[in-house]
Design brief:
The structure holds two protein chains of two kinds. In chain A, about 25% of the residues lie in helices and about 30% in strands. Chain A is of the alpha+beta class. The two termini of chain A are about 55 Å apart. In chain A, about 50% of the residues are buried. Chain B is an alpha/beta fold. In chain B, strands 10, 11, 12, 13, 14, 15, 16 and 17 form an eight-stranded mixed β-sheet that branches. In chain B, strands 1-2-3-4-5-7-9 form a seven-stranded mixed β-sheet, with helices on both faces. In chain B, helix 5 runs parallel beside helix 6 and helix 17 crosses helix 18. The chains are: A alpha+beta, B alpha/beta.
């Protein structure tokens, strides 16, 4: 542990020790971080930086600050007061209650925090205030450095129409379309004829898919025009629209740029971000399998041209759509550090946060374009607390009862801002972490990702590891044949988890049976008691959803499943969530999610969790006499578990509720008890109101 | 089972034509099918296993050693003396065997023979194995599936019940006794399970009541079904008669096997130690943030228990009854421990009549069988109200107090948050001979919550808010208890497991003897 004691701050030290103990290997905190860990101390930047963000990105920024010897100030909401980013910081200021509008977006409170702590600069992370020109202006007015581009660049790139015009002027390829706001239908008609279908109509002020329509003919164009302007007006209070050619089945590839305040700008290669669901990225990689050096250079140079055109400084990202013929079109520019920046750091070796801090202080870039390498390959999986079986991911919430990052593996980087015991709440983004693996080749990085996902222990919330693992092992993904439509194309009926074939089913059944026998044998190892009858061969029946399988296990680890031989060996630690096994010579890490006395085992295998039940031959035979019982459905009814007073009712009839979402609060014995939905549903009726006294078992809310 | 299936009814034979050996074989074969294939099929149809199948599944393969297979009933009235009314072994299967290699005595009532009714012979068989269990010091597991007394035998049957009851009482505190109700159990028969340490039930197929629905209707004119009157749900949620209910026979038997692993064989044995794969010095980081900042906000005590004990393996006793207290068995570094915890999630974790009785009985079992007790305290006090006072919370609350006070096994207490008023004293406090008492930094040991205290101290005075703040500053923390030595240390929650494991090692040699008495007089 001595290796961690590098930081002078007690807080940080505690954090480091705490963090390190998650790892079985005792490896240093993020020793695998794939970016420059050296820093020249001669270059003085800031003494103290306030990080106006939370979660993993706040932690990420602080890591670099610590490396550079800069004091850090965290801001946090009241529910985040014991969050990792708060513990990691040298100072922390509470800026308001849980809702982001009252805390992380509360500019007054954050300005107060800056004054109170004497921070000289602010790193905004991504989201929240990172692209807020008003915030940047207020900082400038008080002489506090904003670690990001200047206000005019934020403004110029923040508007879709304006940014497109600037891009066009800077000789950047843009999607053919009407430059400017479309108003008169006749104009559009003429223009669309020129452009050819399909076309896309979108709100100028838009984002998140709102006010966006795709039209394949004149009729749809007319309708789309009407709907989009209505939607834009109601959503953004701005009904300006633009129209452009719709690029069908494109890839989303973006270029990382880095510029200083002296007119120097670099492109740090691309990131492939095509794997998306609902316009949110899921898996990213750098470099892209699709780009050849010529296209890469062309895209990079155009990105730099655009950056220079707006006198951009700091790190930024120019997003492009790339069609199947490698034509690329400017989409938008993000004037902040991107979520997926780590993969660029992996292949270039640069610490982007460090560079942003240097640039903000006014230093010139240290590198030349020819210094920027592509070393190896990096993949990033966004690990979310969400249920991938519902529209590729609906948020879930809960408490991380067990949490272990796969940092014992080499070339794995995990950017996270949570730890065992943290709550994933409804207030913030449900991202658990960014899992990054790195390798000399793409195949190596992918193999590591597979391993890392298998070794990632997350308990207490539903997570998307099943989906991530399926994506990175899918033949189309492996061959690089992807587009932004990858998920709906590959899983037209929704994601259903890993589908077992004959061999994998056998492996799963054999592992479950071997685990069961291990537990059985262990039960006999009681101190001082008579030794049990020796047994060296067990006949078992293992039930999987598709039926019952006969399994024979011998003491030496040979397993026969339905007559087929499987060899299973491994370290059987019944306390460990991880089961590192060798099955038929292949190394596989399974996870035991739960195990009970009735032989029910929940195993995570190939990313997906499978319910199995292991019974001895005798128990299986007897079990056939047991009647099937239909479980009573109580999930639709919420009753008061105790007598008390209703303090708050958080739903009304017709509201959709997520599993675990608070429905009402009952106060009893001066304790507030939050009652939550046990399933995702719509509220049918509400039978209580705040202030009312209720008895135990009283009906409170009915769900549909 | 193979034998059973091939068997054809072979109780009909003429004694004189057969050699002794053949007669032995015939009787044995007959005993194996109990009341015959038809009744076995009927039993299966009800979703129930036969008496022998249950024993087979409960015990390790081939470990069952049967006794009294040749015992027959001795009734000669009402045609019972006829050969066709004689069944070798009568209506119960008895013997000994092993569960994971550990000795256990078992009886299993056979519903296929006279509805499992209890004859003099039946009772005698049960008494015999109970006596043997007492002699060698091994637990007794009873699998109950009986229509009641053998009416034909009259008072002989009643005498049989009393013989069993007496043995239940004599064995109480000497060897663990477990009852698994797998069918009807009515009338006087219910008192045998009630006297044992643990009563488990099978959902939908088992019933326990003194008088059935028909009698209830005629006496009190209440309409009630068997299930409502004495089903598993009633007894595990409302009456507190049963300690756990399982889905079906197979699940129940497999779970009893698991449960058995926690128990010592007798009061002469220490709590069992099983091979443990969980590090005794494992830090549990999630505990550092588990207690919410707002003192009025609830959390789940089970989250604490499950992360601290070995392999998150916690066998909860009475999980659906008096849920404001959590009790059950777990292991620490392989050694069985009894866990008691207030549950802030339910009724704020207060103590009331039911939770006091539930806790007291569990604590006394642990004490009787040398199982160390670990207590997690977050208790705002006893539940106020007329229902509680009229119900006798004073005398029931005293039971828990009594149980903790008299217990001489190692006692480790962790105050996670509130320890208010008399309830603080009750919950295995230092004053009741707690061996090791810890407080988490979030602990508040006080007479009552700040608001109530200030209202009393500063009644009618101004500046109540200020006084409240002062009270909170002074008392809503672990220091008042720590400076007086009422807690031994204030510990980081993440280190709790490590400390308990270490303390238990030291306390393994604890010796404490209460003053001699004929027996103590717990306020029943």
């Amino acid at each position: 542990m001595a290796a961690h004691r590098v930081s002078p701050s007690l807080n940080r030290l505690l954090f480091a020790v705490k963090y390190a103990s998650f790892q079985s290997g005792g490896c240093a905190v993020h020793c695998n971080a794939q970016y420059s860990t050296v820093h020249s101390p001669s270059e003085k930047t800031f003494d103290k930086i306030l990080i106006a963000n939370r979660g993993e990105i706040a932690c990420r920024v602080m890591k670099t600050c610590h490396k550079m010897g800069i004091q850090t100030v965290a801001v946090h909401s009241d529910v985040d007061s014991s969050a990792v980013h708060v513990k990691m910081a040298d100072e922390a200021v509470c800026v308001g209650p849980a809702p982001t509008s009252k805390s992380y977006l509360n500019m007054d409170a954050i300005m107060d925090a800056i004054r109170a702590t004497g921070a000289q600069a602010v790193h905004p992370g991504y989201g929240f205030l990172s692209e807020n020109k008003e915030f940047a202006k207020r900082l400038a007015a008080e002489g506090v450095a904003f670690i990001g581009p200047d206000t005019h660049a934020i403004m110029a790139m923040g508007d879709k129409i304006e940014s497109k015009l600037i891009a066009k002027a800077a000789n950047v390829n843009t999607i053919p379309g009407y430059d400017g706001v479309v108003k008169v239908w006749a104009h559009i008609q003429a223009f669309v004829l020129l452009l050819g279908y399909p076309v896309m109509i979108k709100a100028s002020a838009g984002g998140g898919g709102k006010g966006m329509r795709i039209a394949w003919n004149a009729e749809e164009t007319r309708e789309g025009f009407r709907f989009s302007s209505q939607e834009a007006a109601s959503s953004f209070g701005d009904d300006r629209l633009l129209i452009e050619k719709f690029i069908d089945n494109p890839r989303h590839i973006e270029i990382q740029v880095l510029a200083d305040k002296h007119g120097n700008a670099l492109w740090l290669n691309e990131r492939e971000c095509s794997i998306q669901r609902r316009n949110q990225k899921v898996v990213e990689e750098a470099p892209s399998t699709f780009l050849d050096p010529v296209t890469r250079r062309a895209m990079g140079e155009q990105a730099v041209q655009l950056a220079k055109a707006v006198q951009y400084s700091s790190a930024g990202t120019v997003e492009f759509l790339v069609d199947s013929k490698k034509n690329f079109y400017f989409l938008e520019m993000n004037t902040r550090l991107q979520v997926e920046h780590p993969i660029t750091e992996c292949i270039t070796g640069l610490d982007l946060v460090e560079q942003m801090i240097r640039v903000a202080k006014g230093y010139q870039l240290q590198h030349k374009q020819e210094d920027i390498p592509i070393n190896g390959w990096a993949i990033e999986s966004r690990v979310y607390a969400e249920d991938p079986y519902k529209s590729f991911g609906l948020p879930s919430i809960g408490r991380l009862s067990k949490y272990q990052e796969p940092l014992n593996l080499s070339n794995v980087r995990v950017d996270s801002g949570i730890q065992e015991g943290s709550d994933i709440s409804i207030y913030y983004d449900p991202m658990i972490s960014k899992l990054v693996t790195y390798g000399a080749t793409r195949a190596e990085a992918l193999a590591r990702m597979e391993d890392a996902l298998d070794n990632y222990v997350i308990r207490g919330v539903t997570h998307n590891i099943p989906l991530l693992r399926e994506i990175i092992t899918h033949p189309r993904f492996i061959s690089g044949d992807i587009s932004t439509n990858f998920l709906p194309e590959v899983y037209p009926d929704g994601f259903k988890g890993h589908q077992l074939d004959l061999d994998t089913r056998r492996e799963l059944l054999a592992s479950a049976a071997a685990l069961y026998i291990t537990a059985q044998l262990r039960s006999q190892k009681v101190l001082g008691d008579l030794s049990p009858v020796e047994c060296s061969r067990w006949e078992l029946y293992v039930q999987l959803e598709d039926g019952s399988h006969s399994v024979e296990v011998t003491k030496s680890g040979n397993v026969e499943v339905d007559g087929g031989k499987v060899e299973v060996s491994g370290q059987w630690n019944l306390a460990s969530p991880l089961l590192p096994l060798t099955i038929n010579g292949t190394h596989r890490t399974l996870q035991c999610l739960s195990r009970d006395a009735s032989g029910r085992i929940l195993l995570q295998y190939l990313g997906t969790s499978f319910k199995v039940r292991v019974l001895s031959k005798l128990a299986a035979e007897f079990n056939s006499y047991m009647p099937e019982k239909v479980p009573e459905d109580t999930s639709s009814i919420l009753r008061s578990p105790m007598p008390g007073t209703v303090v708050a009712v958080s739903v009304k009839p017709g509201d959709p509720v997520a599993e675990g979402q608070e429905i009402c609060v009952i106060e009893a014995m001066k304790m507030q008890n939050s009652l939550t939905a046990v399933k995702q549903a719509k509220v049918k009726s509400v039978h209580c109101k705040p202030g009312e006294t209720v008895g135990e078992g009283d009906l409170l809310v009915e769900l549909e | 089972p193979a034998v059973i299936r091939e068997h054809r009814d072979c109780r009909w034979y003429s004694v004189s034509h057969l050699s002794v050996k053949e007669r032995i074989d015939k009787k044995r074969t007959a005993a194996l099918v109990g009341g015959g294939q038809k009744r076995i099929d009927a039993q299966h149809k009800k979703g129930k296993l036969t008496a022998r199948e249950r024993v087979e599944l409960l015990l390790d393969p081939e470990s069952f050693v049967e006794s009294d297979m040749f015992v027959e009933h001795r009734c000669s009235d009402f045609g019972m003396e006829q050969d066709r009314n004689k069944f070798p072994g009568d209506s119960v299967v008895t013997g000994r065997g092993r569960i994971n290699g550990r000795l256990v005595y078992v009886f299993s009532q056979d519903f296929t023979v006279f509805g499992g009714s209890l004859s003099g012979a039946h009772a005698q068989k049960i008494c015999k194995i109970m006596d043997q269990a007492m002699t060698v010091g091994a637990p007794v597991i009873g699998l109950n599936d009986s229509g009641g007394a053998r009416i034909q035998e009259g008072v002989e049957s009643l005498a049989g019940y009393a013989d069993i009851f007496l043995r239940n009482v004599m064995a109480s505190g000497v060897v663990p006794q477990i009852s698994l109700i797998m069918g009807p159990c009515a009338g006087g028969a219910v008192y045998s399970p009630a006297l044992t340490d643990f009563t488990f039930m099978v959902k939908d197929t088992s019933y326990l009541f003194i008088t059935g629905p028909d009698v209830v209707k005629s006496v009190t004119n209440e309409d009630v079904t068997q299930e409502e009157l004495g089903g598993a749900k009633t007894h595990t949620t409302v009456s507190g008669v049963a300690h756990h209910a399982f889905e079906n026979d197979v699940e129940a038997l497999l779970n009893v096997r698991e449960f058995f692993n926690f128990l010592p064989l007798s009061n002469q044995d220490p709590a069992p130690m099983r091979e443990c794969h969980d590090c005794s010095d494992r830090l549990v980081h999630s505990l550092d943030t588990i207690v919410p900042f707002e003192t009025t906000k609830a959390y789940d005590m089970l989250d604490i228990i499950q992360t601290i004990v070995d392999e998150s393996d916690f066998f909860e006793i009475m999980p659906s009854y008096a849920k404001n207290i959590v009790v059950g068995f777990a292991r620490m570094n392989g050694r069985t421990v009894g866990i008691v915890g207030n549950q802030p999630k339910v009724a704020s974790g207060c103590l009331d009549i039911n939770s006091s009785v539930k806790g007291a009985r569990f604590v006394r079992f642990c004490d009787a069988f040398n199982i160390p007790i670990i207590t997690f305290v977050d208790v705002p006090g006893f539940l106020p109200g007329t229902a509680q006072e009229y119900g006798g919370i004073i005398r029931h609350g005293a039971k828990l107090l009594y149980a903790f006070a008299e217990a001489t096994v190692p006692k480790i207490t962790i105050i996670t948050r509130k320890a208010y008023g008399g309830a603080y004293d009750v919950m295995s406090s230092k004053h009741l001979r707690g061996d090791v008492n810890y407080a988490w930094p979030t602990a508040e040991v006080a007479v009552m919550g700040a608001k109530g205290a200030v209202q009393i101290i500063f009644r009618g005075k101004e500046n109540q808010a200020e006084a409240e703040a002062e009270y909170v500053e002074k008392f809503a923390n672990p220091f008042p208890a720590a400076v007086r030595g009422f807690v031994d240390d204030i510990i980081e929650p993440s280190t709790t497991r490590k400390r308990i494991c270490r303390d238990l090692e030291v306390l393994a040699s604890k010796k404490q003897i209460n003053p001699w008495k004929k027996h103590a007089n717990i306020p029943l």
